[in-house]
Amino acid sequence: MHLPQLFAYLLPLCLSAAATHLSAPSGPYNVGFTQHIFNHTTPNDPTPGPGNIFLTSIYYPTRSVPSPNTSVAYFDATSAAIWGDVFNILPSHLLSLETTLQWQAPLLSDKEDVEKIKNWPTLVFGPGGGMNAGYFTSLLSDLASQGYTVLALDHPGEAPYLPLPYGNPGVVGWDIYMPYTDSLIVEMYEYRRAEMVALLGPDGFPALVELYGAYFNTQQYGAFGHSIGAATATGAMDGLDSIVAGFNIDGGLFGDSVNASLKGRPYFMTMNPNHFASDPDTWISFAERYANESKTEGGWLDWTTVEGSAHLAFSDISLWVELLPKIENATEKVDLGNVSGTRMDEILKTYVVSFFEWVTCGRYDEKLLDGEVEAWPEVVFNAKVRSDGHGTDGQNLGEGHA
Question: What is one process in the GO biological process aspect for this record (predicted)?
Fold first, then answer.
C-alpha cells in the first residue's frame, strides 16, 4: 500500500484506544532515550531517502522515574497506518502501544552506578531490512535497563516511513512490499555496514560522547542485529577490533560478511526453523570457518534454532499481534510462527542478555549457554564451538541442515 492511499482512511480509524503496554524491562534501571542525526553520504543511495544522513537512537540506563511528560510514543500515525494494514490491526490500536522510554532522561549520577557500568561495552544494533529500529524496542530497552548503552541505526528511505526528531520532516521510503533482489540486498548491506563503521569511528558516537561529557564506553562495543542487521553487525565486527562480541538474530550473511573472520571473538547465532529455505549455506560455511580458525585463535560460538518461530517473530511485531485486537475476518498476510509473542520476547531477551552479561562481566550461565534447558524447550542447539575449535555437539557443523 502506498502512502497517498493511507491518508484517505487514517483519520476515521485513528480513534482513541486504551493504552497497551509492552512488558516492563527486567533490569534494575529505568530507560532513557534520545536520538541523533549523523551526516553521512551514501554514494548512489538506492533508496528514496536523502542519502546524506543516518539516524541513531540511543537507549541508556537512568534512575529517573517514568512520567507522562517524558514518555516516548511507540508509533507515529503514518507508520501505524502502514504496518496496521499488513498485520490486520487498526492504526488506533497500534497508536495505543506505550513504551517505558523517557525522552532525554538524566544520565546516572550515583558514583556507584557509574563505576559499575561505565566500562561495559556499548551495544550497537541493526534492524531487519525495511524495518525501523524502534520495532525492537522491547529487546533494546531491556538491555538498557541492565545497564548497557544501546545504539540502534536507521537508514532514512529504507523503511516505508521514518519519523525524524527535532522538527525534521519524516522520510518516506520504499513501499512496504518492496521486492528485494540479491543485488539490492548487497547494496543495502554495504551502506548499512558503512554507517555502522562510521558511527563507531572517531567522528561518530565517540565525538558525540565527548561533546556532552557522557560516561558511555567508546572503546569497546558489542554488535548485534536482526536479518540484514545481523549481517551488518558481522561485517562491522570483521573490520573493527573494537567490537568484542556479536549476536546474529536470524540473519543471512551478505557481501563481505560471508567471509568475515572474527578472530575467535564470541558469537551467537539463533534462527527460525525455515531459515535455510532462503539461506541454504552462509551459516554453515561461516560456522565451519569459525571452528577452523578457533583451533589457533581460540573462540566461542553457539548456534541455535527456536522451533516454531518465524523470521519476523524475532521482533516486537509478534507482541503487536498478540497484545492488540485483530480486525475480524481479515486474511493473514504474514507468518509469525506458532510461538506466542510474549514467549518469543522472553526467549530472545534471556539469551541476548545472558550472552552479553558473560562477555561484559564474566558471569557465564553454563546451563543456558551450553545446551538445551527445560525452561526453554523451543531452543535447540545445532552446534557449539569452544576454544579448542571443536563443537561439543559434533564436528560436522552443517550436518542435518544442508
Answer: lipid catabolic process
Share of the chain above pLDDT 70, in %: 92
Give the DSSP letter of residue 36: E
DSSP string, 28-83: SSEEEEEEEEEE---TT-SSSS-SSEEEEEEEEEE-PPP-TTTEEES--HHHHHHH
User: Helices (DSSP H) in 46-120: which residue ranges?
Assistant: 77-87, 91-94, 111-117
At 402, list the grid cell.
Answer: 544442508
Per-residue pLDDT at 13: 39
Residue 373 in domain: yes
Question: Predicted confidence band at 18 (pLDDT cuts at 50, 70, 90)?
Answer: confident
Grid coordinates standing for 120?
561495559
Q: Quick one: what percent of the chain has pLDDT higher than 90? A: 85
Structural domain for 213, as ranges: 34-385
**Distance, C-alpha 183 to centroid of its chain:** 23
Residue from 71, 205, 57, 30 nearest 134 by CA: 57
Reduce the DSSP state of residue 92 to 3 states and report it. Answer: helix
Mean pLDDT of 395-400: 41
Residue 297: the pLDDT is 82
Number of structural domains the chain divides into: 1
Q: Is the dihedral of CA 243, 247, 249, 251 positive or negative?
A: positive
As a whole number of angstroms, the distance between CA 62 and CA 60 comes to 7
- In-domain check, residue 46: yes
396 falls within a domain: no
Q: Percentage helix, strand, coil, to 5, in the chain?
A: 35, 20, 45
Q: State how far the Cα of 251 lies from the Cα of 315, in Å rounded to an integer.
A: 13
pTM for the structure as a whole: 0.93
Instruction: Give the distance, in angstroms, between the CA of residue 385 and the centroid of all CA atoms in the same chain.
Output: 24
Mean pLDDT for 50-62 is 98
Residue 7: pLDDT band by 50, 70, 90 thresholds? very low
When pLDDT is cut at 50, 70 and 90, the band that residue 75 belongs to is: very high
> Within a domain: residue 402?
no
**CATH code of the domain covering residue 260:** 3.40.50.1820
CB atoms closer than 10 angstroms to residue 186: 15
